[in-house]
Amino acid sequence: MEQQKLPNATLILVFGIVSIVTCCCYGLGIIFGIIALVMAGKATKVYMENPEIYTGYQNVKTGKILSIIGVILNAIYLVYVIYLFSTLGMEGIMNMNEEMMGEYGF
User: Fold this and answer.
1) DSSP, residue by residue, 14-38
2) Over the stretch 35-47, which tens digit does the pLDDT of each residue have?
3) Do residues 55 and 2 lie in contact, with contact meaning Cβ atoms separated by under 8 Å?
4) In a domain, 103, yes or no
5) Closest Cα to residue 6, out of 33, 42, 38, 31?
6) Cβ count near 105 (within 10 Å)
7) Which domain holds residue 68?
8) Residue 72 counted as domain residue
9) pLDDT bucket at 34, cuts 50 / 70 / 90
10) Is the predicted pLDDT of residue 106 greater than 80, yes or no?
């Protein structure tokens, strides 16, 4: 029997990468990470039923690891942003940004 590609294996890998790349976008990457984790769970279940007929399980495992890392990074950054808003407020963050831009000559 001819082997077939595991469904959504590449998409899981891409979503895992996107969840890490967008970790500084105020929690946007957490959405991609969670979607990738759910899809990886389904793909793993399909693969475990008949492992000899599917290829691409390595992409699923790598995407799952990347999405776990992405979810953790996004959660840390989101907690940091909430902390900044609760302590400094919007005005304090704007002043901090202006000071940093002036310091680096922008």
Assistant:
1) HHHHHHHHTTTSTTHHHHHHHHHHH
2) 999 999 999 999 9
3) no
4) no
5) 42
6) 5
7) 4-76
8) yes
9) very high
10) no
Q: Which residue has the tokens 């950054």?
A: 77
Classify residue 96: in a domain, yes or no: no
Q: What is the pTM of this model?
A: 0.85
53 within a domain of the structure (yes/no): yes
Total tally of structural domains belonging to the chain: 1
The CA distance from 79 to 88, in Å, is: 14
Query: Which pair of structure tokens corresponds to residue 77?
Result: 């950054």
In this structure, are residues 71 and 33 in contact, taking their beta carbons and an 8 Å threshold?
yes
Q: What is the pLDDT of residues 87-100, one digit of tens each?
A: 988 888 888 888 88
User: What's the rounded Cα separation, in Å, for the pair 12 and 66?
Assistant: 9
Q: Rounded distance, CA 42 to CA 7, Å?
A: 9
8 secondary structure, DSSP code: T
d(C-alpha 43, C-alpha 7), whole Å: 7
